[in-house]
Amino acid sequence: MEILGYIMALIIGVTLGLIGGGGSILAVPVLAYLFLLDEKVATAYSLFIVGVGALVGGIKQHQNKQVDWRTAITFGLPAVIGVWLVRHYVIPELPAVLFDIQDFAFTRRMAMFGLFALLMLWAAYSMLSSKERQGGSGVVKYNYPLILGEGLIVGAITGFVGAGGGFLIIPALVVFANLEIKKAIGTSLIIIAFKSILGFLLGDALTMKVDWLFLSFFTGITVIGIFIGVYTGQFIDGQKLKKGFGYFIIAMAIFIFFMEFNI
Predict the structure, then answer these.
(1) Phi, psi dihedral angles at 151 (to 5 degrees)
(2) Could you tell me which residues come within 8 angstroms of residue 157 by beta carbon, excluding any fewer than 6 positions away?
(3) How far is CA 126 from the centre of its chain?
(4) CA 17 to CA 19: how far, in whole Å?
(5) Angle in degrees, CA 152, 157, 160, rounded to 5
């Protein structure tokens, strides 16, 4: 199972390199079901893996001049605060069983993985949608209250489920900051990187024992996969892969619902 888990770490990276996102959403189920980590540890480690993967992509986008750093900071700061609040204060205080309904116990694990599966379905929909994303005019105009509020909410969701949330951030940057779509994608990678890595370091790393050897090894394999994906992406149609991966994410979301709720 662990060997399969490390193979999946490589696949996560290859997917990120090929289609520019989505692969990191597999980190939580891989950590939970192949390495048998509990919901706190799986979502925590996923944050670090997602963050490092996004940072690699973000650096590349910066070199291509597709990152608006002012927007990244404006949106990213409240997002970091959202992740930190949830990982440092909320998750450690959640009881194992949130509430009971007759003989049914709704657990913390059900809440975290259930919301994660719903977000997987949302991510899959964004991949399968035939509509092309329309970017803004490129003349950056900030709606500060909405940007700050959205950043805080996305950060809190990221902290709770351990996913990067690019499919939430990119539309927000287009609508609330009027960014062009390519620049919104590049900027979102920087936001994901900093909110995920800082959220993990300021939250989980201070409240739980971290197996740094395992986490570094898993993350390193994922980064190698990213470079493989970027190279092979020159010869493969990324759009067709994106749709296929979207269907795979739907299957994984159904699997998580089945495993956690015994459907």
Answers:
(1) -60, -45
(2) 82, 115, 119, 163, 165, 168
(3) 14
(4) 6
(5) 125
